[in-house]
């Protein structure tokens, strides 16, 4: 059982003494972190120090896309816009972290915000906390990835801790996107299926094609980083503002590499919490 | 009822309430049972709920204020150069607006810490800062901050009570790991940029384009807000900042200097708590990995919340 008594150890008194000794206005390096307290403490325990909040953004105007109404097809202009704008935001965030001398960025969130700029304009933001390792990676390797950039990961502080403890290191976030137009049904097929509950194969196929394209692009990015695998993959379908038959499939995950041969973490303790 | 109040110190009723709380010894708090237990576990006692409030007139409209003057003086095409960004942090007219908001927040925070001191507290946890329109008058805003004052066991008292947005559990974890909150900070910046010829071209282009002028506007305003936050952290002696919240608003206004043209305005606000390490922290208990045998709904809820954030 835990018999740690903070008052007997003088913890609150120490904390108050530190506050009493504060020297306002003393220049020094100040870190900013948008991690929660839990994440902040776990990242520290995994052997990393937060050094600053980093972000990159791009206000992007999406061009005009011409497509055929009755054909399943990828809308390349839109795919490219979604990809290019996100990449701009990510690259700028990485550049900020590199300037701070960071080894990596954890807790990255990529989002698309419709700001009050106009209908076809959106802000693409990447935001995360830059961290620096206390020690070089096992085997004397660098924490940065094979492009000499800080690693990026959208894992929470908790997931990051678990990953490092299990003997893996993040390399970078990998993403793939595909904006796809799903064909409208032809009149003839609408009539032949009227009132029947049947599968509409062209629709199913369109979803498969679009997902496959997004996943394959993410895979290719991970291979370029020399990753062993991708963890925490999320595959989301967004219907931004392009009408009913257009969908964006967006795949994103964190590419990882092994740090050591065994990937054991100590056996977790079973707990049964009594509060539900 | 009490007499008129001149704005110095606490309003009479608050002073009376605090004095009563001090004598009576019964404290109130908005802490949940879990938070209360967490705070007790690191050697702190709640001493009462404290608040601070200030109603300020913040006029945003009218030429008199002119806070959204973009400072654009050149011709329509500007010789191909991008329009500059007028930043509050660099002495643009909007600096006055940021200053007023800052003063109002400081007044509210100051009254809260005054209540905390009067109750014999060493700091305030779970402080929530809100800004809401005051219903009785136009252009008036109420700045309110409310939290729970706590007192440390032992004989050492800080010169000034700390303030923090962290809830009871977060505060307890921080203390356990050897960090202590210093103060609640708000970094804010307003930037104004004239929509120039180039912006218009990019805006109505047929192809995919980054609107680099606007990207620059948003980048500069965010950078300025972060710089303000860092400066405030240094002013209060903090070593790091844990962010609570960040917010960015963008809107369009007719230009004050050029007829029939527009400006875009961006306002960025960052709220966080400055923290500092106290040296003689006890050895950190190693984090223990556990596998809950119940509550499997938690993970699903977390995932759903994460998906909603994206």
Automatic annotation (TrEMBL), chain A:
Family matches, as InterPro entries: UPF0145_dom_sf (IPR035439), UPF0145_YbjQ-like (IPR002765)
UniProt xrefs under Pfam families: YbjQ_1
Annotated coiled-coil segments of the chain: none
Family: Belongs to the UPF0145 family.
Descriptive protein name: Uncharacterized protein YbjQ (UPF0145 family)
Top-level taxonomy: Bacteria, Bacillati, Actinomycetota, Actinomycetes, Kitasatosporales
């Amino acid at each position: 059982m835990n018999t740690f008594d903070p008052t007997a150890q003088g913890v609150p008194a120490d904390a108050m003494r530190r506050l009493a000794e504060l020297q306002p206005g003393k220049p020094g390096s100040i870190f900013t972190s948008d991690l929660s307290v839990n994440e902040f403490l776990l990242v520290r325990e995994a052997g990393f120090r937060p050094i600053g909040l980093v972000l990159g953004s791009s206000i992007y105007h999406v061009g005009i896309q011409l497509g055929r109404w009755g054909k399943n097809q990828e809308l390349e202009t839109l795919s490219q816009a979604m990809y290019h704008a996100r990449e701009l935001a990510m690259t700028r965030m990485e550049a900020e972290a590199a300037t701070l001398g960071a080894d990596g960025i954890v807790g990255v969130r990529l989002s698309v915000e419709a700001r009050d700029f106009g209908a076809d304009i959106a802000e693409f933001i990447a935001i995360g906390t830059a961290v620096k390792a206390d020690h070089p990676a096992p085997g004397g390797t660098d924490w940065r990835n094979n492009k000499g950039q800080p690693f990026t990961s959208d894992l929470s502080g908790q997931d990051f801790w678990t990953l490092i403890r299990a003997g893996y290191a993040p390399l970078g976030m990998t993403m793939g996107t595909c904006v796809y137009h799903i064909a409208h049904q032809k009149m003839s097929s609408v009539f032949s299926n009227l009132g029947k509950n049947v599968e509409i194969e062209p629709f199913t196929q369109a979803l498969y094609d679009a997902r496959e394209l997004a996943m394959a692009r993410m895979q290719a990015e991970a291979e370029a980083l020399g990753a062993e695998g991708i963890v925490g993959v999320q595959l989301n379908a967004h219907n931004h503002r392009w009408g009913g038959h257009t969908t964006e499939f967006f795949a994103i995950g964190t590419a990882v590499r092994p740090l050591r041969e065994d990937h054991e973490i100590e056996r977790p303790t079973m707990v049964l919490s009594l509060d539900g | 009822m009490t007499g008129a109040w001149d704005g110095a110190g606490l309003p009479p009723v608050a002073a009376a309430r605090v004095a009563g709380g001090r004598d009576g010894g019964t404290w109130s708090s908005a802490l949940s049972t879990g938070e209360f237990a967490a705070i007790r576990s690191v050697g702190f006692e709640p001493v009462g709920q404290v608040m601070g409030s200030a109603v300020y007139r913040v006029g945003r409209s009218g030429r008199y204020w002119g806070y959204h003057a973009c400072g654009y003086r050149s011709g329509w095409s500007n010789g191909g150069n991008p329009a500059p960004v007028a930043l509050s942090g660099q002495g643009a007219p909007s600096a006055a607006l940021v200053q007023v908001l800052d003063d109002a927040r400081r007044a509210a925070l100051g009254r809260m810490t005054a209540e905390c001191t009067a109750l014999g507290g060493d700091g305030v946890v779970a402080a929530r800062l809100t800004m809401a329109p005051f219903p009785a008058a136009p252009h008036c805003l109420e700045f309110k901050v409310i939290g729970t004052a706590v007192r440390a066991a032992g004989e050492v008292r800080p010169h000034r009570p700390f303030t923090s947005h962290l809830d009871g559990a977060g505060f307890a974890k921080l203390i356990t790991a050897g960090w202590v909150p210093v103060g609640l900070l708000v970094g804010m910046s307003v930037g104004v940029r004239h929509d120039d010829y180039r912006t218009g071209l990019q805006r109505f282009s047929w192809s995919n384009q980054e609107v680099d002028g606007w990207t620059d506007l948003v980048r500069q305003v965010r950078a300025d807000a972060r710089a303000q936050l860092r400066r405030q952290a240094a002013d209060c002696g903090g070593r790091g900042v844990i962010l609570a919240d960040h917010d960015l608003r963008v809107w369009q206004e007719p230009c004050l200097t050029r007829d029939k043209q527009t400006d875009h305005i961006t306002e960025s606000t960052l709220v966080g708590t400055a923290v500092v390490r106290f040296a003689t922290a006890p050895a950190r208990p190693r984090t223990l990995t556990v596998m809950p045998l119940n509550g499997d709904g938690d993970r699903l809820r977390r995932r759903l919340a994460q998906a909603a954030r994206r």
